[in-house]
Write a structure and sequence with these properties.
- The complex is a heterodimer of chains A (109) and B (121).
- Chain A is mainly beta.
- Chain A has no helices and nine strands.
- Chain A is globular, with a radius of gyration of 13 Å.
- With 121 residues, chain B is mostly beta strands.
- Helix content of chain B is 0%, strand content 55%.
- In chain B, strands 2, 4, 5, 6, 9, 10 and 11 form a seven-stranded mixed beta sheet that branches. A four-stranded antiparallel beta sheet of chain B has the order 1-3-8-7, with no helix packed on it.
- The model of chain B has no long low-confidence stretch (mean pLDDT 96).
- The chains are: A mainly beta (109), B mainly beta (121).
- At the A-B interface, β7 and β8 of A face β5 and β10 of B.
Chain lengths: 109, 121
Amino acid sequence: QSVLTQPPSASGTPGQRVTISCSGSSSNIGSNYVYWYQQLPGTAPKLLIYRNNQRPSGVPDRFSGSKSGSSASLAISGLRSEDEADYFCAAWDVSLSRVFGGGTKLTVL
Amino acid sequence: QVQLQESGPGLVKPSGTLSLTCAVSGGSISSSNWWSWVRQPPGKGLEWIGEIYHSGSTNYNPSLKSRVTISVDKSKNQFSLKLSSVTAADTAVYYCARVVVQDLASWFDPWGQGTLVTVSS
């Protein structure tokens, strides 16, 4: 049981815009930054979004993050086949622990 | 750029101790970053295990704290994980990662490629 809650799956067709939600509490998302990681099949996770909505260099601007209260969202616009991956949200929790969402498997139809 | 590489036994017996090392290249482990371990059971999500600063300060996941020890070897530019009293539930891909810290924010980047550790007799 993950501390942060994500839908187990999401899907979209090429060119579409999809969003993935991440729900937490005042102990984590509500009081700290949210981060997003992309895990392509068979590979290690990779930083996608930091500080709620900042993109590292090299991450396309098709990816965007937002946060409101104790929830956050990752949006992917202009969906491409190479975006098919698992996406994880993460945050720091006041219990002095880093916590993750259970992950969302994105399928590009 | 900084790269991390995990190494260690791929098979550990139940009740034994899992030991892994993460070698850091392209940068110093004594930089202003923390160094962390994260695991992922097959087909499941990510779980943070703990982290260490080059001074030796540590933070551990409260659910694993009684079994985890993370240490750093500055002379070899590497850090290590020991997890005791393992069971099948500890079977997972273990990743090491650098924790970048900026003001009140901190995130994992980059990650090592991961190493699968199976707990079985």
